[in-house]
Design brief:
With 136 residues, the chain is mostly beta strands. Helix content is 4%, strand content 40%. The protein has one domain: Beta-galactosidase, Chain A, domain 5 (Distorted Sandwich). A hairpin with a 2-residue loop joins strand 4 and strand 5. The relative contact order is 0.21. One of its GO terms (biological process) is carbohydrate metabolic process.
């Protein structure tokens, strides 16, 4: 679990899925992220697909690949590549598991930053393949 802080907010991000689990206001400790035992997840990252494809599969260059609903990033452990008091960057690189679903070489970075105004989240997809890289 990674924790970042500003003078007004504290955020907690789980490396598993690069998922924001808590966003607290420091003064009143109010948690802006809905946490309820009815749903195990908090704010999952949806990559490389949002939603569900027909028959949970798609074709690339004539080969069929299965794709879980909302992609696979939420079930992967991200690497912490930068951590400052108010910011953390997490990286998912293509690997044997991701290639079962997605035949591309990529680096997917999610950067969280807390400010006195709230939370900023940036997503960056770096195509490490020679051809086009599809994602939604």
């Amino acid at each position: 679990m990674q924790t970042i802080k500003s003078s007004c907010f504290t955020a907690e991000i789980d490396e598993h899925g690069a998922q924001l689990t808590h966003l607290y206001h420091n003064e009143d400790h109010f948690d802006y992220i809905w946490n309820n035992p009815l749903w195990e997840k908090h704010a999952p990252i949806l990559f490389p697909a949002i939603g569900r494809s027909n028959n949970d599969a798609y074709l690339i260059n004539g080969q069929q690949y299965e794709m879980p609903q909302h992609g696979f990033a939420g079930d992967q452990t991200f690497e912490v590549i930068e951590h400052k008091n108010d910011q953390v960057a997490l990286l998912l690189r293509s690997n044997e598991v991701t290639k079962q679903y997605y035949p591309f070489n990529f680096e997917f970075t999610v950067t969280f930053k807390v400010t006195d105004e709230g939370l900023q989240v940036a997503f960056n997809v770096d195509n490490k393949s020679n051809g086009d890289l599809s994602y939604s």
